[in-house]
Amino acid sequence: MKIGHQLKKARESKRLSQHEVGELLGISQKTLSNIESNNKDCLGI
């Protein structure tokens, strides 16, 4: 299981939005969305 999928499952189990988790991590909602969808092109990885 990829880290993005694990992160999404953990976030959803706590009933947190991408925006809420993004604020906690200091990243944008869009960046978190890219991480959860394993979209490496948008992350510069």
Explain this structure to me?
This protein is an all-alpha fold and 45 residues long. It has helices at 3-13, 18-25, 29-36. It has one domain. The chain has 3 helices and no strands. The protein is flat. The protein starts with a helix and ends in a 9-residue tail after the last helix. Residues 7-39 form the HTH cro/C1-type domain. Pfam families: HTH_3. This is Helix-turn-helix transcriptional regulator. It comes from Algoriphagus aquimarinus.
**How many DSSP helices?**
3
Structural class: mainly alpha
> Portion of residues in helices?
55-70%
- Strand fraction band? under 5%
What is the succession of H and E elements? HHH
Whole-number mean pLDDT: 90
Overall morphology: flat
Largest sheet: none
By DSSP, the count of extended strands is 0
Distance between the termini: 19 Å
Unreliable spans: none
How many domains make up the coordinates? 1
Radius of gyration: 10 Å
